[in-house]
Write a structure and sequence with these properties.
The chain has 376 residues and is mainly β. The chain is built from two helices and 32 strands. The longest helix is centred in the last third of the chain and has 10 residues. The structure holds calcium ion (4 copies).
Amino acid sequence: MQGAGSEVGIDVHGYGVTIRNCDIRGFYWGIQLVQSPHCSITQNSIKDNIIGIYCNYLSGDHNITENYIQSNNTAVRIAYSNGIHIRQNKIISSMYGIAIKTYSHYTVVLENIIAANIVGITISEGCRETTVFHNTFMTNEYHVLESGTETRWDDVYFSGGNFWDNYNGVDLYHGQYQNETGSDGLGDTPYLIDEANSDHYPLMKPLGVEHDIAVQNVSTHRTILWQGIDFYVNIEIANYGFNEETIDVIIYANSTPIYECLGVILEGGRTAALSCKCSITLPLGIYKISAAADTLQGETDTSDNTFANGNVLIGMPYDANGDGVIDLKDVVLVALAFGSSLGRPTWNPNCDMNGDLKIDLKDYFVVCSNYGQRET
Ligand SMILES: [Ca+2]
Ligand SMILES: [Ca+2]
Ligand SMILES: [Ca+2]
Ligand SMILES: [Ca+2]
């Protein structure tokens, strides 16, 4: 689902609704739940919204699990809602990762990766009994902004607290009081959050940080690709892990490789858009353009390493509508797009005969000089 920066992607007013496996981008509220308890939001990709998931007003007891929530203003916002479990999500590159607001109690934040946000988590004063442990807090400008009331930042010994990438303690001791010789994977001194809050057993190593890349989108700059004429394939790739990766991507038309994009370096938690200049000499016909990123060493989730575009037509050069003949219809298409350039309302990429991203007399001459040609 693609929004236009406003409105609600999925608007829930009900009991026990499950939202699974959706791709929700570009809305004001990606998912909004109002007076809708006991819902399950799982395995979704939620990107580029103002608020990714908003649990508002008596909308508690949800399970928000295994979502990829990236580049929202606020990834998860909770208000007037109790008992929400936020578990095993990747919450990345937002202004606010998790915002627990106004009278929301008993929230559990467990086993999430919260990284590259301005603020990792903020819990308003008066939100009681929040539990936050076994999360990985990395590369946030502020891991915690406000700490709420009675927030617990660790579980009992030896289960431990969270990983904080700016913790500078050591691990030489173990035991409930960290005074017995021998390490246990937990820092020997607490991680201080503010005057009233500490994680007593900070983890020495991050949990759940893996090597994982994905191809998120593939598109071609024209929908009709002409044999032997350059065109662009635009790819969006993401690094879901937290290590810098070197990524190789191959672009295919059906099963034929048409371009290799090798050695792309991408920081952890980041996305990149690549524009690849391609040329095809394959027979005329309908093809599926796809991009596949090579599996990284140690990568286990490879299901998202390939992304396929809708079908494209490989046609005879300069046939603007792809119907196999260059005739008045093509000249009319060029005339309709005449004077436009990339991004303008009348722009038609299939009329840009010389690939200079504008449609002018040069394109007109090309279509006219090929007038009457047919596919053989
Ligand atoms: Ca220790
Ligand atoms: Ca992957
Ligand atoms: Ca035609
Ligand atoms: Ca042109």
